[in-house]
Amino acid sequence: MTSGGAGATPEHNWKTGEGVSGIDDPAEVDAAFERGEWPMGTAVIALALHCSLEEASPRIIRAMQLPDRDQRGFAYTAAGVAARLNGALTPELYAALRAEGHRGFAVNAVDDTLDYVPFRDLPLWFKWRKIASRVADKVETWRLNVTYATESAWEIICERRAG
Fold it and tell me: Cα angle at 65 between 86 and 57, to 5 degrees?
């Protein structure tokens, strides 16, 4: 048994964070929230990997509100993991990601949601994000193509002037 005081189990040590990534019991995570343990972001990633979306979702949302910046970031990672594994999110997770926007902590979680949730199942805001992202990518591709063509033409002109 690992030592770690209250909340230590043979597999998980809340004080050091050792083994927390293997948690699969939502009740244990709830108890750790109540005790104010610090590796809660890591714990909700584990729940996203090992539990149903419905079990993990409320804990992920709670971890998104943690005061510790790093652990809050892990909570958004957990939302992205949930989207990847389930091909969907709960309405509450969609709302939390939308509230954060496509920036900061949520950027990768939003991208994972756009990549792994079928378009037809996305809420309206996410559909707009996906369309806007595709349009921006296409505009950037055109811009780069024009830039490369201009550079190539300039090189040819300079070679002809020199030779």
Answer: 20
How far apart are the C-alpha atoms of 13 and 41, rounded to whole Å?
14
> Mean pLDDT highest for which of 14-28, 36-50, 84-98?
84-98
**Alpha-carbon span 58 to 91, nearest angstrom:** 11
pLDDT for 146: 95
DSSP string, the chain: ----STT--SS--TTT-TTGGG---HHHHHHHHHHT-STHHHHHHHHHHHS-HHHHHHHHHHHTT-SSHHHHHHHHHHHHHHHHHHS---HHHHHHHHHH-SSGGGHHHHHHHHHHS-GGGS-HHHHHHHHHHHHHHHHHHHHHHHHHHHHHHHHHHHHHHH-
**Mean pLDDT, all residues of the chain:** 90
Give the mean pLDDT of 95-104: 94
